[in-house]
Every structure is written in structure tokens, then in C-alpha cells.
Amino acid sequence: MDYLNAIVALTNFVLIPATAYGAQLALGALGVTLIYGILRFSNFAHGDTMAFGTMATIGATVVLQSWGVSFGPLPTALLALPFGIAATIGLVLLTDAGVYRFYRTQKAAPVIFVIVSMGVMFIMNGLVRILIGPDDRRFADGERFIISAREFKEMTGLREGLALKTTQGITIVVAVLVVAMLFYFLNRTRTGKSMRAYSDNEDLALLSGINPERVVMVTWMIVATLATIAGVLYGLDKSFKPFTYFQLLLPIFASAVVGGLGNPLGAIFGGFLIAYSEVLITYAWKKVLVYTLPDALEPTGLVQLLSTDYKFAVSFALLVIVLLFKPTGLFKGKSV
Amino acid sequence: MVSVKNTALFAAVFGLILLTGFTSGWNSALLILNMGLISAIMAIGVNLQWGFAGLFNIGVMGFLALGGLAAVLVSEPVTPGAWSAGGFQVIAALLMGFATIALTIFVRGKTTGRVRTIVTPLLLIVGFFIYRAIFDPAVARIEAIDPAVSGNIGGLNLPILFAWPVGGVFAAAAAWVIGKTALGLRSDYLAIATLGISEIVIAVMKNEDWLARGVKNVIGIERPVPSEIELQESAQFVERAASLNIDPVTASTLYVKLSYSVLFVIVLLLIFLAAELALKSPWGRMMRAIRDNETAARAMGKDVTARHLQIFVLGSAICGVAGAMMVTLDGQLTPSSYQPLRFTFLIWVMVIVGGSGNNYGSVLGGFLIWFLWVQVEPYGAALMGFITDPMPDAWWIKERLLASVAHMRLLTMGLILLLVLRFFPRGLIPEK
């Protein structure tokens, strides 16, 4: 029995990847949940908004790299991020003016907005594929590891290595900063408070002189920022492929719904819950069990509850179970 | 009922297909027609749920895939030795899994408070491990049987046409379970739940190799019509082709495709008639009453939940039939080809563009959108060729524009959906 190695193995293969993935999902789910709270529909184009933001950032990264600009040990994409965010804000504001505003003035039913967002999803998906192509693309540069498995082994003399990739470190740091800023904005600033007021009770907010178009515009800008950051962090950590980003919509929705649509705290909780469940249920526990159990009980198989391909299935099974017992999510969400 | 405008719309769509026949050959035109017929059936299924009852089901892909699975399980020959190796044990394991869930639900009904919180997960976890202990070795034995060609349980070796109703039954059964659990959810939550369940169906089909070979695909599924080779070898057929002045190879491909068309037209007519009769019956009026004002319908004593479940099952069954027909037409089941953009959202575009709540609209939408989905690429290529013609060769903008043609169809579908929603919000043939 060797608990130290077991803990290190668990951290290396489960805790670190799941935390990074959870942070990426949480940022994505925050965007979905904000749209649901303010504009009152589930935005099916969110995954493709993330893809667009990432694509714009990759474009800016390539330009920066061609000028010889680099960010030292950190990925150049972080320097390019503001350009990506600006481009995405431009795109979603254009979409809002050209598409969603019409239905808002008509006071269309929420389900019409959902169908409209499907149309936007098709267009953005096509746009991204036309502009950058459908292929897989890696754009992380700079130092690969903060601690590599080999260094860790040499440092501690343990049999198990512990690797922390730069992108994982960046993901966690950036996510914490972004979430702190978002909550400061929502709770402390005048605009943020008017957003929450609008989300809680639209009529009352309008009565007290809040300009709805301004609230909507600020919401779209925040959502575009969150989507781009989430997309870039995911792309740095793994890779960028338009189709994968479209599919990310599924766990992101699951996170937002599990937490309760329209509730930002719920979205963050949901993101981590989904990420941890996906990783824990599809992780092969053999290694950890070999260290912790006495030799006689040593497992013969991989001790994997479900094969890795069932990742999405796990998040949705969780979603369905939560919805059955708590129909509006774990934290109290809305229902329009 | 049959207005000039609607006749003109249908005539225009079939004119487009005919035009394809004259310009790029009858084989391509028939290909579009056949898949258009299947698309029309899918659209009728979705229209039943959305147009009649206002149920927002975006799990269409899952039901289509279940229909496809039926095609394999019904028509494939039995894999020799698979049943004795582990088939019965797999069934026992699945029954054991269902029993665990039933027992858990039963126990939950009998207990309360802390006992319930402890017993529920305990039962599920113990049940899961027993299930895996029975299931895994059986699956391993089945998958070990000649994995390069089979490695699955095989089918019942029945004629493929039986698979079409069976596909409907498969989808209906799944829809019943899903409807029982998810139909109580409100609007967006139901949509997301159905989307998720359809992904689970595809994940299962990709990974459970013992069932239908997973991503190794099942190819060469039996066909309900003679094969081209058989026809070319038949002296009588060659003679007939010669008398019509067509060379035997072309004649045989056309004959096969036309036979499929005839089969599909029969199914489409049957389903269309049933859906039309349902729409006009008191039952159809009740459905629309529920859709338009659920509370009022409930106050009139209508059982809204039961009616929703009913129409959800019916609509999904139609999608299941269409899924089985599609696999029959393709002659293969490839789980990885099921993608939500193509098999869920595109069907929705058909229904919305055609006109939700109107079966004629769904059929029109099915043909029109399928035609555009196929033809946007060649038309886009021609357009881009024209635009880029004056540009210098190997200029990056030219190459980008030419490469973009392949992704034009998604953009076009989105544009069509948004334009129709904006300018014809009730579709091309609106509900009366």
C-alpha cells in the first residue's frame, strides 16, 4: 500500500485535467446562462461563437508571430486574445442587430428565439469552416510544462509523475480572474446591477428607467468575451477544430442546466460537476487501486466504469437525472 | 385545399429535380428524389410533434439511428455461434440491469428519509457491478468471433422490408421511455434533454460493438430490390434496355433507383394520409387546442400529459421508419455519420421552411431543403469558379474562395432558415 503515489497518480490523471476542463466548461456555461437570464432563450449558437472567437484569436496569433512578437514562456495567443474578443463582440453585436432585435421588438415566444439561434448556429458554423477550414489545429507555443512528470519524479523520488501543463495552469488562473471580475461587475457596478434587475423582473426594471437595449448590448459583449476566453483556453489545452467546438455545446448546456439556467453561480458549479463526473467515470482506476489496496485484492481489469467514448453520455445522463429530481437545476434556475 | 400557389410550389421543386435530371444525369436526380422522399417522411414525423403539439424535440438523430439499428438487427444473417457464445448472457445482463432500475424505483416508493438516500445509490452501485460482471465476459466472447467481418450478434435474417416497421417500433419504445421521463420538463429543458439523449443513443451505437459492430460499421445490408449486377446478367433485362435504347449498365442503375422510389412513395403516401386524417380528426383538433392553450385544454378535462406522450411516440416512430429506410437505401450502417447538424437540425429547417403544422408543407420542405443541401455545393462551385476566373492563379484569396465551396451548405441552410423565419414566419405553406 502506497497512499502517496496513489494521491499523486490521482492528481495527475484526474484532478488536474478535470479542474482545467471544468474551468473551461464553467466559462462556456456562464455565457449560456447569462443569455438565458437576460434574453430568455437557450443559445444554440454558443459553441460556434466560441469557435469564432478562437478562430479570430488564432488569426491574430499568426499575425503576431509573423511580426516576431512572443510572450516569453506563455503562449502568444494570450496576447492575441483582446483582438479575438473584439472581433467576436463585433460579430455578436452585428448578429443581434441583424437577427435577434427584430424578434425582441415583436416580443416573439422564447422558442422562436431558440429556432432563430439554430439558424445563427448554421451560419457561424459555416463561416468558421469557410474562414479557417475544418481541420484540427494546435496554436499553443511557449513553454509546454510548468512541472513535467520527469522533473517531479526527480524532485520527489516518487514512482508516479505529476505533470502540470502551462495551458492547464493558465486556464485555472485566467478562469479565476475572469469569474472574479464578472461577479464584481454583476454585484458592484451600476450596469451589472441593472442587468440583474432586468433578469429578475423585466417590467419592474423597465419601470425604473433601465434601458433594455443597453442591457442587452452589454450582455452580448460579456457573453462574447466569455465565449472567446473559454474557446481559446480549451483550444490551447487541447486543440482547435470547428466540429469539436460545436460538440462542446452539449457538455456546456449540461453544465448550465444542471446548475440551473440563468444562475451564474450554478453555471460554475455545473461546469465542475460535469467535468469531474466525466473524468471520474471514464477513468481507469487500476493504477490508483493497485497502490491503495492490499496485494491480495489487486484488480485484474482496468476498473473503468464506462469507456472513454461515453464522456458525453455521462454529462447527459447526469443532466437528465438532475432534471428529473430538481426540474430547474441544483441552484434555482428560471423557466420561461 | 389545393391552391394554385401550393401546386406551383410543388411543381417548382419537382421542376428543379427534373432540371437536375436533364443537366447532370438521371442517376443524380433519382438520388435526390429518393433521399427527398425519406426526408419528407422525417419532416412529417417532426411536424407531428412540433406542428401539431408544440413539442420541441431536437433528438431526431437518435430516433433515426434506432431505425437504422433495426435494419441491421432484422435483416443481417445470424452470426454463427454468437448466441451460444454469449447472446443469451447479454440478454440476461440487460434484464438484470432493468431489474435493478425497477427494484430501485420500487424501493424508493417504499422508503423515506435517510434510508432512501442511502439505499438508492447502494442498490444502483451493487446492481451496476453485478450487471457488468455478467455483461462484460459475454460481450468479450461475442466480439471475439471473427472480429474482421462480424464480432457482433448478427440479426434475424428476415427480409429487410420487415425492418421498416420494426424501426418504427424501436423508436417508439425509446420515445415512450424518454417521454415518460422528460415530457414534464418545460420548453428549453425538454429540448436540451432530447438533444442529450440522442447523443447517448449514438454513443451506445458507436461503442457497443457486439450489437451492430460499432464504428466498424455494417456494410452490404440486404436490399429489397435486385442488384445492378443481377440485372445486367439477365438477358431479358438487357434486351428490354436495348429496345429502349439505353445501355444496360445505365438502365440497371436507373431501374434499381426507381424501384426504391416506388417503395418510398408507397410508404410516404401511407404516412402522409394517416397524418392528414389525424390532423383533420377530432383528435387532431384536440392536439392543436392543447398546443395553443394548454391550461384551457386541461380545464376542459383533456389529459395533456398523456396526449403529449402519445404524439411524441407517434412522431418518433415515423422518424424511426425513415431511419430504417435510409439505412436500407444506403445499404450500410455507419454510426459515426450521424451528426446533429445533418440529422436533427436540417430536419427542423425542412419543417420550419415548409410550414409547421401543415403536412403538405413538411413534404415540400423535405424535398426543397434536401435538394438545396445536395445542390448548393455544385452551384456554389460554379459560382466561385465564375467569380475567381479573372483572378491570378495561386493567389491565396482565389484558393480560399475555391476551398470555401465545400462549407457553403451550412451557411446557406442558416441563411434560408433565418430569411424564412423573418419574411414567411409560418413557412412556405402555412397552417390553415
Automatic annotation (TrEMBL), chain A:
It is found in: Cell membrane. Pfam families: BPD_transp_2. Keywords: Amino-acid transport, Cell inner membrane, Cell membrane, Membrane, Transmembrane, Transmembrane helix, Transport. Its main location: membrane. The keyword Cell inner membrane applies. The chain crosses the membrane at residues 20-39, 51-71, 77-99, 111-132, 168-186, 215-236, 305-325. It comes from the Bacteria. One of its GO terms (molecular function) is L-phenylalanine transmembrane transporter activity. GO terms for cellular component: plasma membrane. GO terms for biological process: D-alanine transmembrane transport; L-alanine transport; L-isoleucine import across plasma membrane. InterPro entries: ABC_transp_permease, BCAA_transport_permease. It is a multi-pass membrane protein. Belongs to the binding-protein-dependent transport system permease family. LivHM subfamily. This is LIV-I protein H. It comes from Nereida ignava. The gene is livH_1.
UniProtKB/TrEMBL annotation, chain B:
It is a multi-pass membrane protein. One of its GO terms (molecular function) is branched-chain amino acid transmembrane transporter activity. Keywords: Cell membrane, Membrane, Transmembrane, Transmembrane helix. It comes from the Bacteria. The keyword Glycosyltransferase does not apply. CDD domains: TM_PBP1_LivM_like (cd06581). This is Leucine/isoleucine/valine transporter permease subunit. InterPro entries: ABC_transp_permease (IPR001851), LivM-like (IPR043428). Coiled coil: none annotated. Its main location: membrane. The chain crosses the membrane at residues 7-23, 29-48, 55-74, 86-106, 118-135, 155-177, 189-205, 258-279, 309-329, 341-360, 367-387, 407-424. GO terms for cellular component: plasma membrane. It comes from Nereida ignava. It is found in: Cell membrane.
